[in-house]
Amino acid sequence: MPPRAAAAPAAAAARGRTAWGCAVSGAAAVPFRQFIVKAHGRCNLACTYCYLYEGPDSGWRTRPAAAPAEVLDRTATRIAEHARAHALTGLALVLHGGEPLLAGAGTLAAFTDRVRERVPAGCAVHAVVQTNATLLTAARLTVLAGAGIRVGVSLDGGTAVHNRRRVDHAGRPSWPAAARGTRLLADRFPASYAGVLTVVDPDLDPVGTYESLLALRPPALHLLLPHGNWTTPPPGRTGTRYGDWLCAAFDRWWAAGRRETRVRLFEGCVALLLGLPAATEALGLAPFDAVVVETDGSIQQVDSLASAYPGAALTGLDVFRHSFDEALRHPGVAARQAGAAALAGQCRACPLLRVCGGGHYAHRYRAGHGFRNPSVYCADLQRFIRHVAGKLAVAAAPVPSLPSSPEGGAP
């Protein structure tokens, strides 16, 4: 049995039914291919804007700090079971927290090995740990590299000023340790470097932020809009400040003339505008395929939903008593896999629907109306998508030929 009860409180479950609305039937569920495992449920930092520990959902307080051995063992079995049932040829194993390195690099490596041992032959396990980099050392990176675990780093930018809100529990800046860990990763373990995740701050210069992150030599950069919604708006959301920020950063990335680093949001937008598939939670209509296992073994939706209201991510399921296939039938998961059918009428009528996809699911929430609303960033996303479309149109325009001179030469 699980170390703690995993059933959702009745009030949260009832609120969830109202929020998700009626599940759309008729479409086959898409199997999970991203398994986010909370190896540790606490963090050594106390970032002032953290939606998880500073937001409306305090459920983390009642869960174990670290995932017990029996939870990790059962999770490995459930992942393998799902991979076998759906003949998966590959899956992503995301070791998360809190700060997952608090669980120990050896624990993360052993768990990853166990998943790889149990999945069927031919199923590749792409493992990554998402860390704030303050605990990265050569010894820990050696263990992670040996287990084939890549390292993603969360930073607000590439300077101390950018990271001023990322402090420890005593209020001390995290930047010196984070910078040291990130540079160690880039210098000595480049093959293990997965990239940098950054939350957009409209008060910071977009070009300066982008270039400061480039200095850390990330192979990929993930720009995320802060989690907010119509009931609890993002900080400083006036006009299209966030959209303007993204446009300026995009222009710097686009004008480089070469790929300095991959930017998932930018590449995803370009691909979708060209009619190509793109795997990004922030844009597009592709079915969402991620699931979370918390430290108590509870199966949850992604914890960004915790920014909406307490219990928003709960399913009432756990790895001891339920399979991941049962989680696929949860109305919240079904809604996230329903594509345009789960969107507000305003979104379905929008000419940008195929690219925008309604934006990030958590950003659509409005108390009393659930998630069937446009994104709180609707104006920003329109600004950004139209800007990128304009750049593509200019790039695709034919170059006019120069008229010939009377003598047949160039004028």
What key attributes describe this structure?
disordered N terminus; single chain; alpha/beta; 34% helix; 411 residues; 10-stranded mixed β-sheet; 10 strands; disordered C terminus
Give me the number of helical elements: 14
Order of helices and strands: HEHHEHEHEHEHEHEHEEEHHHHH
The averaged pLDDT comes out at 91
Question: Which sequence of strands runs across the widest sheet?
Answer: 7-6-5-4-3-2-1-8-9-10
Structural class, by secondary structure, is alpha/beta
Report the sheet-strand fraction.
5-15%
How would you describe this protein?
The protein has 411 residues and is α/β, with parallel strands linked by helices. The chain is built from 14 helices and 10 strands. Strands 7-6-5-4-3-2-1-8-9-10 form a 10-stranded mixed β-sheet. Helix 4 runs parallel beside helix 5, helix 7 crosses helix 8 and helix 8 packs parallel to helix 14. The radius of gyration is 22 Å and the shape is globular. The protein starts with 9 loop residues before the first helix and ends in a 15-residue tail after the last helix. The N terminus and C terminus are likely disordered.
Task: Give the SSE layout.
Blueprint lengths: L9 H11 L13 E5 L12 H4 L14 H17 L4 E7 L8 H14 L5 E8 L6 H9 L2 E6 L20 H14 L4 E7 L6 H9 L5 E5 L16 H15 L6 E2 H10 L16 E4 L4 E3 L13 E5 L5 H5 L2 H6 L8 H4 L4 H4 L21 H19 L15
Parallel strand pairs: 1-2, 1-8, 2-3, 3-4, 4-5, 5-6, 6-7
Antiparallel strand pairs: 8-9, 9-10
Helix pairs in contact: 3-4, 4-5, 7-8, 8-14, 9-14
